[in-house]
Amino acid sequence: AKEPVRVLVTGAAGQIGYALVPMIARGVMLGPDQPVILHMLDIPPAAEALNGVKMELVDAASPLLKGVVATTDVVEACTGVNIAVMVGGFPRKEGMERKDVMSKNVSIYKSQASALEQHAAPNCKVLVVANPANTNALILKEFAPSIPAKNITALTRLDHNRALGQISERLNVQVCDVKNVIIWGNHSSTQYPDVNHATVKTPSGEKPVRELVKDDAWLNGEFITTVQQRGAAIIKARKLSSALSAASSACDHIRDWVLGTPEGTWVSMGVYSDGSYNVPAGVIYSFPVTCKNGEWTIVQGLAIDDLSRKKLDITGAELCEEKELAYSCLS
Ligand code: NAX
């Protein structure tokens, strides 16, 4: 039998946490043969609710779940974890300045970076979900210098999956037959959902999405804005932000990172930019990546047309601006 993997979920008493922890306990993240020990962290005002989630996990009696640590102590939460999914953060409230929200999250991610650096298992893989996800991940990276940069990522898989979903609905094909969309840049409304290299499996082979949709105006317009604004549309409908889809895509992100992407398929991940595709280096930027043996690699050599170039630059500029804002909160 495999040794259990310790998975940390921060903000575990929140909405996404409530959807995510049962998925992890049921093997959705790491596979049906991988035992797990869940570490759940939240802040003291949520301690009682967190304990309620722990009670429900016990009641769910998942055979893969070998233990649950529910705590408000950051060190206890981080100790020995192999995977850390950072969902906890400070949300933007009505009337709050961007800088104030950034400042709160910078201080959270700075201190949690140190705790992970000192107490997590060696080679711990980190996924930041909490917004501003890319910049929170960057702060985590900066304040955990001994964790390799390649181990720190941000979630754009939800946006990636949203793009797959939109194409699948438009063409009335199975979502599993659509692949290789790309989310470039920031997990924000400047992200660029790109279908220029995306394909659909058809009875007569793989066909480019553009060739099948036959409507560039839609692909360059409404498709992009629908994916960019999908989070807002969910809030409008549910009066709550996306949770089950966020949790599900966090599982997809970790699963593909750990177990690998299928041959010929890439996914989108926010990773520490090396300046590939002439986007800014030194920010957490979402790229198309393939994963093998627990490591991601940016897909190289894709053609970037003029429209795409502009959009890659806009979202890159926003990330540089966020980085500056985050740094200004440190001083
Ligand atoms: P909730 O407000 O329901 O839950 C957040 C939880 O974090 C709360 O229980 C809170 O007590 C806890 N928390 C706050 N500060 C903490 C700290 N210092 N340490 C540990 N826990 C802390 O929000 P939820 O809907 O679950 O969303 C969580 C985060 O995900 C938000 O920042 C949200 O903006 C972000 N999202 C990111 C997405 C992505 O694709 N990257 C999509 C979904 C989601 O909007």
From TrEMBL:
Q: Which reaction does it catalyse?
A: (S)-malate + NAD(+) = oxaloacetate + NADH + H(+)
Q: Which domain of life is it from?
A: Eukaryota
Residues crossing the lipid bilayer are: none
All copies of domain Lactate/malate dehydrogenase C-terminal, residue ranges: 156-325
A Gene Ontology molecular-function term?
Answer: L-malate dehydrogenase (NAD+) activity
The cross-references to CDD domains, in alphabetical order and at most eight, read:
MDH_cytoplasmic_cytosolic
Location of the active site: 187 (proton acceptor)
Q: What's the EC number here?
A: 1.1.1.37
Identify the Pfam families for this entry.
Ldh_1_C, Ldh_1_N
For biological process, the GO terms are: malate metabolic process; tricarboxylic acid cycle
List each copy of the Lactate/malate dehydrogenase N-terminal domain by range.
5-152
Task: Report residues binding substrate.
Answer: 92, 98, 131, 162
The entry's keywords: NAD, Oxidoreductase, Tricarboxylic acid cycle
EC class name: oxidoreductase
Question: So where does NAD(+) get bound?
Answer: 11-17, 42, 105, 129-131
Which Gene3D superfamilies has this protein been placed in? Lactate dehydrogenase/glycoside hydrolase, family 4, C-terminal, NAD(P)-binding Rossmann-like Domain
Membership in a protein family? Belongs to the LDH/MDH superfamily. MDH type 2 family.
Protein name as catalogued: Malate dehydrogenase
Q: Give the species this sequence originates from.
A: Corchorus capsularis (Jute)
